[in-house]
Amino acid sequence: MAENKGTYYITTPIYYPSAKLHIGHTYCTVMADAMARFKRLQGYDVMFLTGTDEHGQKIQTLADAKGVTPQKYVDDIVDGIKDLWATMEISYDDFIRTTEERHMERCKAIFMKMYDKGDIYKSEYEGWYCTPCESFWTESQLGEDKVCPDCGRPVQKAKEEAYFFKMSKYADALIDLLKNNPSFLEPESRRNEMIAFIEQGLEDLCISRSTFDWGIPVPVDERHVMYVWIDALSNYITALGWPDDPEKYEKYWPADVHLVGKEIVRFHSLIWPAMLMSAELPLPKQVRGHGWLLLGGEKVSKSKARKGKDVIDPVILIDRYGIDALKYFLLREYTFGQDGMFTNETMLQRINSDLANDLGNLLSRSVSMIVKYCDGVVPEAKQRDEIDDDLITIATSAAAKVEEKMNLFQYNLALDEIWNIVRRANKYIDEKMPWALAKDESKKDELDTVMRNLAEALRIVSILIIPYMHTTSDKMREQLGLADVEGVWNDAFEFYQMNGVTVHKGDALFPRLDVEKELDALGEIGAAQ
Ligand code: MSP
Q1: Domain spans of the chain, in order of start
Q2: pLDDT-based confidence at 149, cuts 50/70/90?
Q3: What is the DSSP letter of 126?
Q4: How high is the pLDDT of residue 296?
Q5: Is the shortest distance between the CB of 14 and ligand 1 below 6 Å?
Q6: Is 336's C-beta closer than 6 angstroms to any atom of ligand 1?
Q7: pLDDT of 216-248, one tens digit each?
Q8: Residues 6+ apart with CB under 8 A from 178
Q9: Class of CATH domain 7-290
Q10: Whose CA is nearest to atom 26 of ligand 1?
Q11: Would the CB of 27 count as within 6 Å of ligand 1?
């Protein structure tokens, strides 16, 4: 068993059950899942939370349009979201729905802490509201065209009696937090945006609505429901049982990281800490804002091979290429914090080059050769030259580098460190030419050494990929004869653990794709989306 390294609490945003989730929505959850699995592999006691954000004007409007109650509306969609996370093998430890009693009661308790502190007062709201973002805007923030600065859609005028939270009171404390504790908000570009936002003047925040009733009633005035962001942000501690069942809260809070998309960094790095300061609760250790996957785009629509649009439904993509290929692509292709273009073409090329060619070929070649030259039994390494040394050093030093990159949320670079082993091992085969060694009886020791070193390098890869593609890891370990041995993090630092292990030839890990043909097929599906 891995050593216990302490606790690690990671969250994704809780999703609006308002539309079918597309590949962009899955990006954050896939990153959070990989981090949760990585920390578990290292021996942390992990709490990974996700869920759904089910109240607010947007949901009420959508339910009204469908002619169903908001509860019925969200129940149906939430089932679909849970199914998607099951298909994507998302290893969350808890799924919180904001319509659950446990959340609603605890959320009221947070409100009351802020109220009792004297930070909530009644007044009148007059301004603009973006329903899709559930976001209030002032005249000056909108500019002339009256569109939401976050999503660019038209905003509606709102004028109603409302409760306000004294956000302005916390402006200095928030500036202090962002400037003196820079790791609280990463990346730096987002931090600078938030500092500038506060410096423009932080206004008090409207935190109740009274023109519709799909929300948590304000405890001191049931004609109002809480502003949906106050309701939603609270999930990070209500799910832990604060305040009435605080065992998990005491164990995991403050969160190690809230992973969020860039457009909701403002809510997480300003409103949420101000709420916690008001309620006199500790702040999360970090908020990390990721970029967006941009869907479609010129390059793709111009591609000759394409008949239609890109397929962005994760279920269709998983069905065709498997969950591990999709997860690998999302984590390897994009740089955390930056936007990236999503196209089916880049995805297919990445799957072919890194998975079918580099990793798949390495495993299949190595296992075939061990079967052919050593009757399937991993032999002892009998000697060591500079080329062996190079492979061994790269393989045994990768784990530390992967850890370093993961701690910076550089998933793409962490995977690249692992693929360094894969690429080096493929080159090692080319350099050592085992087929030539096999023809010469006097080279048997060298041949054995090559077989042994390939098996060990693949074993290390099979451990390092567990957080990102655990099914592929299992398949590799099956072929390597390690199916009964648990992949343990510390074993990724060590060579020579496979004495006398019997390998088994199996199917290709990732069949090679005919990119043009796949693009045509996806184009047809995409056109019908
Ligand atoms: N309900 C709020 C979050 C409340 S958290 C207390 C919300 N929900 S959402 O469903 O609209 O978005 C959930 C997450 O999906 C956000 O972090 C958002 O950035 C992310 N994404 C939605 N489209 C995306 C892309 N195209 N690319 C990357 N992430 C995207 O906001």
Answers
A1: 7-290, 314-493
A2: confident
A3: E
A4: 57
A5: yes
A6: no
A7: 999 999 999 999 999 999 999 999 999 999 999
A8: 184, 185, 191, 194, 195, 198, 269
A9: alpha beta
A10: 24
A11: yes
- CA–CA gap between residue 503 and residue 501 (Å, rounded): 6
Q: Fill in the DSSP letter of residue 284.
A: P
| CA 278 to each of CA 170, 238, 274: distance values in angstroms, whole numbers, following the listed order | 8, 16, 6
Q: Which residues of 418-448 are buried (b: 16+ CB within 10 A; e: fewer)?
A: bbebbbbbbebbeebebeebbeeeebeebbb
Cβ of residue 260 lying under 6 Å from some atom of ligand 1:
yes
What's the pTM value of the predicted model, to 2 decimals? 0.95
Q: Which fold has domain 314-493?
A: Isoleucyl-tRNA Synthetase; Domain 1 (1.10.730)
CA distances from 281 to 103, 231, 255, 274, 515 (A): 17, 16, 12, 10, 53
| 313 within ligand 1 shell (Cβ under 6 A) | no
**Is residue 388 in contact with ligand 1, taking CB distance under 6 Å?**
no
> Does pLDDT of 86 surpass 60?
yes
Closest-CA residue, ligand 1 atom 28, reads 292
Q: What φ, ψ does residue 285 adopt, rounded to 5°?
A: -75, -30
Distance CA 407, CA 319 (A): 32
Amino acid at residue number 245: D
How is the beta sheet containing 205-206 ordered, strand by strand? 135-137, 120-130, 156-165, 205-206
| Ligand 1 centroid distance, CA of 15 (Å) | 6
